[in-house]
Amino acid sequence: MTTTRTRAHAALITGATSGIGEAFARSLPNTTGVLLAGRNEDALRRLAAELSAPARPVATIAADLATDAGRDAVVAHAATFGVDLLVLNAGVGRFGDFLDAPEETLRQTIAVNVVAPTVLARRLLPAMLQSARRTGRRAGLIVVSSAAAFAPVPRLAAYAATKAFDLSLTEALAAELAAEPVDVLALCPSATRTRFAERSGWRGGNLPGADDPELVAKAALAALGRRRTLVLGPVSGALLGVPALARAAFAQGLALVLPRQ
Length: 261
Known about the structure:
seven-stranded parallel beta sheet; globular
């Protein structure tokens, strides 16, 4: 069956209570059901109340993606919600020297930024692909990486490393799934007006020229199905756009020559 790019029927958004995740939830058409995942149950309920519309399912799942139990809960809810668009946005990080970071903080960064998107994609994509083949509607996967994924970043060493993982994983998935009815996008924003700086311990406020989260989300939704990596930012977009295209082409070339097991 030939698949067509249509608006998502139902989307799972992780890290949905603020920043880019909230912007994704607000930017999706009101015909798209949304499953909002995050740690703040009150904030989830408030957002769900704002997004509710006639004939539009809106659900929430309060879960800590740093834990097995939290990841299991999100997967279970997404499976029953009929998700055909994954927006894996949740991310944490700590600003400061690596050796000053508590080990538990580093473990949490890796669990949320690396383990969670890996597990959620691996568990949910097979059913999404099966549904897409059956219905003729393309599935979608957006993984929120970062412009920091393209280079080592002192004092954000672990965070940048996890985002490099996210970028590489998503590029490889896009190449592996090129013939499947799913659109895959690695989203790499630069500085964005979110609470990440505050939560990370950065005391300088948002960086000059930081993007609006709504613009980031809308750009990603517009790019899904049209490109595999989207780098945003007045400087990062110009500097990293060509390397992003080269990386995607390299991954596709490897997918064509490496044998399947």
